[in-house]
Amino acid sequence: MATNRTFTMVKPDAVAAGNAGAIIKQIQEAGFKVIAMKLTHLTPQKAGEFYAVHSERPFYGELVEFMSSGPIVAAILEKDNAIADFRTLIGATNPADAAPGTIRALYAKSIGENAVHGADSDENAAIEGNFHFASTEMVG
Ligand code: UDP
Ligand code: MG
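A: This is the predicted complex of the input protein with uridine-5'-diphosphate.
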């Protein structure tokens, strides 16, 4: 299992607002190398599968609806200490609690529509990356 990779999505709110380019630039300037990237539009079924771990939570229906509401940018990123450093870069789930300068502080609208996803563990980064990308779509 790679310990230096994470998985991210620029969520539909940020893509629709035209912020994907600025967010990807901030990610690269923080030292993350893009290993795979695509613009895609999840069906409700695919969004539901991706977030299946949250299926018992009260916000699951809204989350699935939101994540399938428009295009996203999915990416696999590489950096030393990728998981923790990326969570620091994006900030807290609720933008009201996100540290100044973090991606969510800059671009998130609400706790639900919060601009970006970041994997929470090496194991989940690998599962989530493989959910979106074939190995032939990854470089390096
Ligand atoms: N979410 C929500 N309401 C909540 C908590 C989470 O709509 O009260 C959404 C939000 O888009 C969040 C996602 O569900 O990013 C996954 O939740 P998680 O707790 O894993 O937060 P994250 O890891 O994205 O910070
Ligand atoms: Mg999470």
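The CA atoms of residues 44 and 55 lie 13 Å apart. The beta strands are 5-10, 33-40, 72-78, 116-118.
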